[in-house]
Amino acid sequence: VLFRSAVASVVVVLGVAVVAANEKAPASFSDAMKGINATNMKLRQHVTAKDFDGVAADAAALKPFAETTLKFWQEKKVDDAVKAATDLNKAIADLAAAAKAKDEAALGAASQAMGGTCRTCHTAHRSEKLPDGTYEIK
Fold this sequence. Notes:
It is elongated and about 40 Å long. By secondary structure, it is mainly α. It has five helices and three strands, in the order αβααααββ. 81% of the residues lie in helices and 7% in strands.
């Protein structure tokens, strides 16, 4: 009985530690993620249509969201997320350059890089969706 109580206590403590590790994202970060998502939907359409002016506008709109994301992860000192956010900022700069040059191949590569960066970070750091539509960060 004593052993079971000790095991149960350890399980509860570990469970609390896991729950405590997740946190609700601050509004600025959540807003940046929502902005990236909404703009990325437009971006996909503009890339498919080879609408270089649309892509340039999307890149400009994405830039402040990506900067907010990078700053958030730098403050948290989460190295892999800082790298992903840095890569995101580079992909956005590459999108802008490709749009300006009207370079379809570079546009496709930058768009894919951006999508891969988002997916990598979400896999590592996004937890379950909360009732208010935001996500916890793990």
